[in-house]
Amino acid sequence: MAKNLVIVESPAKVKTIKKFLGANYEVIASNGHVRDLPKSQMGIDVDHDFDPKYITIRGKGDILTALRKEVKKADKIYLATDPDREGEAISWHLLAALKLEEAKDKKVYRISFNEITKSAVKASLKEPRELDMHRVDAQQARRVLDRMVGYKISPVLWDKVKRGLSAGRVQSAALRIVCDREEAIASFIPEEYWSLDAEFCVEGCKTPLHAKFYGNGKKTEIHNKEEMERICAALDSVVYEVADVKKGERVKKAPLPFTTSTMQQDAANLLNFATQKTMRIAQQLYEGVEVKGRGSVGLITYLRTDSVRVSQEALAASRAYIAQNHGEKYVSLEVPTGKKNGKVQDAHEAIRPTDLALTPAQVKDSLSRDQFRLYQLIWQRFVASRMTSAVFETITLKIKAGEYMFQASSSRRVFDGYQTVYAAGEEKKENNAAAAGLSAGMTLPAPTLTKAQHFTQPSPHYTEASLVRALEEGGIGRPSTYAPTITTLLGRRYLIKEEKNLYVTELGEVVNDLMKKAFPTIVDETFTANMESLLDGVEEGLVDWKTIVRNFYPDLYEAVQKAEAELEEVKVADEVSDVPCENCGRMMVVKYGPHGRFLACPGFPDCRNTKPLLEKIGVACPKCGKDLIVRRTKKGRRYYGCEGNGNDCDFMSWQKPAAGKCPVCGGYLVEKGNKIVCADPACKTVIEKTDQAFSPAAKSAENM
Prior knowledge:
- With 704 residues, the protein is α+β, with helices and mostly antiparallel strands.
- 34% of the residues lie in helices and 23% in strands.
- The longest helix has 28 residues, at 133-160.
- The chain is flat and about 100 Å long.
């Protein structure tokens, strides 16, 4: 009887797939790639039309031996690696490494499935295909471009900054995005504004009615205390009357099913998972977990996708499940398609459960805590995506108060729709219930007025979730690259994570500045996104992959040559300081560690003395007059503190202090981009750095 061999990527899949197939099928794993470009060199023959030089990956010899042994026994070989570019390339490398094209007595097929279920695996075996070389070429192009960037630019970083650094086509663009945001935050100057809220005690209602100041005929902003006092004076003794009541309905549509990006974002925001952790757990759920009474089961569909498409079978199953468990009125007859931005690859479905009957409650005892939480999120999101919208009854009130107007709004959910299943962070309860009993012309009792001063805030620091969203919206990278890109930036210490926020380290700033100066194209978002579009064109058979490489390499080579000749060395590490080592007398050198710069004895390993580097900024502490120095948190985020910090003085500032005192209030000054501002936002003092006549030092001297 003919013997069939199925080759998959992961050993975890072997057990899951083997139980679907009879004794006539052998299933074995390649453990990912078996061939790749060599680590010791770029591995691309520039002189011979950029041909890649693939070699067997070290440590894969035993796996290849086992694979060849099974290939000899088989008549038919099915390459069943993942259903994406990377999976297609792995199958192509297996074809070459196992010399399957030369085996005339063997029939070799490519099969792929979006979920590891019996029906999906069986269906793929009935419809085998040939390798998709367009998809393979798209992966080759990405690999070659990334290798060129990494192996050509990284040595420049080693030479000009320090060894061990790296640059990457997507990585460097992502670093640029975070650095630009941090620069915007650092240079942001807050603007003052005030809010005025009114609280009315409405007869017959337990809860008060809350209204916000609207303005005089049109929406009016209150900029300062003087304006606020003028408005409050005008409101003294006025009659408050309901001028207008508008009732309406607001429909909140069900969310789309998860893509890789939205899954990572929700897992980060709701479960506090890092992107890498989300992908690792999703991979386990996809490949198969032991479910009591069922054996190894693949619980979700393929996890690397940017499509929200769902198969007809899954659509029918979801509608039947919702109708049975929630009722027909909860079943949506619409098929959401999501945004059409030209960047979506529709090869795979959205991420969804493979079997809705396997509810989170049913499999909870078979999963780890984190597996359960992610599976529950995916399951609830998919079911919700097939449900009807939530409906809210809305009321908007305009309350006349003399020449001014206040506005109040109320929202009450009248139909929960999808929110009966998935309402993460969304409104459920009624607010401002007192509005329902009011009508135009009614007079309200005098309210309690609450005045509050506020200051505008800069854009928030990036989190892993918001950075993934930014990469996706910018077309930078693909679903498979988001997590490894962020992991690399954190691993290289270009970024650090405190709480959920990402911050740029000193090293990250140096690398980004060098990349912007010497390789502006590589860190340009538009260029990187256009490159992704070209790779998509290769996959669609519209662009030859060698053409992209031929056009890219000369410019890269020229930029590298120019950088090597013209860039000055950036002294981030190993500067000789003026501090002698107290143990051996050598002059200590500046080293760069995980938490920033420090002093170390150059006599290592004979002398292992190290000490903190007191990096003075030339500004006196506004509290005690000692020198201010650069300090860092345990994770490496920079701040500015007093030389006596922790002992005699507790001054600290996230913003870099500037010399002198505020000429208006006498407080300390900080640098904000090309301006110097008072640290107290209420003061509003702003000084141009180039304004010599209004220099902080000069104005401070005048006030002494």
